[in-house]
Amino acid sequence: MNLTFHGAAGGQVTGSAYLIETETARVLVDCGLFQGGRPADLLNKAPGGRTAANFDAVVLTHGHLDHTGRLPLLGRAGFTGPIHTTPATVEMAGLILRDAAKVQLQDGERKNRKRQRAGLAPEPPLFESADVERILRQFRPVPYHQPVPVASGIEVTFLEAGHMLGSACLQVRVREGTREQCLVFSGDLGPRGAPILKDAETFHDADAVILESTYGDRDHRPFRETVDEFVEILRRATSEGGRMIVPTFAVGRAQTLTLLLAWVFRKRLVKPFPVFLDSPMAIEAWKIYQRHHELFDEDMLAFLSEGSLQKDLATLRMASTADESKRINDVEGPCLIMAGAGMCNAGRILHHLKAGLWKPNTHVIIVGFQAAGSLGRRLVDGESRVKIHGEVIAVKGTVHTLGGFSAHAGQTDLLAWFSPLAAARPKVFLTHGEDGPRRALAAQLTQRHRLKPVLPGLGETHSL
Ligand SMILES: [Zn+2]
Question: What residue ranges define each of the domains in the chain, with the CATH number in brackets?
């Protein structure tokens, strides 16, 4: 059997795509988009090139764009086979891919206006809504824990990964003649003890493990401490009558924060204030969360059964349209606004920052990763003036950075997840991490288990 790393390898964190090939079958695990400007754009081709049309099936670990975003390209390359994943991921991937097609179109139009002014020919978007709709018809929901044959001699089982709604680790059994091998793909792993979702399930046997290493070199601040910090900020901002602006990724973080606010209000830790979910995509994701309570952990289910979420969130307002979003400006007194984009490089959050940053009682709460060069990063770095829509805005408000809401396991949790597998002495491939974190995690695995993990390069094939 051959395993080829078509993404999330060679120090790349995005573009997850791993191809399993035997004499009789070809199955792709994930088909993610490379993200991060021009260099990433150049890598975005259908994994496997011309052979893509001949894949038997695709299996998805979860809905995030860096795990699903090249599926429309696979469709264009002629792939017509099934895409197996959990029922919640079918919904999440639909939401995320449809949004990605819209973003492609808008970005493309802006870039092409620039190209036109420079006398260059227009460039088509990477994919369009029609490509997304076509590929979504190939999705097949598979329940957790139920082994499903996906190609000749290949059977896959989905287990909880605790990373986002519907996320899964995969157990892949590959039979070639009389020989059977077991591959375990971690997918993206959530931190242990994080709220809402169940923790990642563990495995006890594997011939090969493909392990993510996003935070292979560090641990996050514990969730509990981050919640205390969050509540302190809410208290301070409400006593000052200030606005809280939370740039947030639409899927995952926004839902965690909404449920956290419900808990804060129910426990009367802070007097309820208006909360705005100012993102059509976050609103849709919230509805998907409400349809999948079976994926919640015991604490979350107990929380839901002990009181009325509707009552807790009586002050929650959803702003779908641009007009509803603009009207938030007229709200007086303390309020909290969640809007995208998560790194403040586009979207409705820019209007709220422009309207609020120059006021001393504004509190910007950063809850997610901010890439170098983004407006979010400049705020985190404490710049006193920033430019928004071409206008210079003074930063007089307070910027808070909360590290403990991450959806990824830190080093300790990655090692704990792997530990039950160590006795089986599997071959380990570290993916989905920059080289620093990958090497740090590899060193830990060598020290603790005397294993020599492989750090595969992009496009590399390994035989098993
Ligand atoms: Zn992910």
Answer: 2-218+407-463 (3.60.15.10), 223-401 (3.40.50.10890)
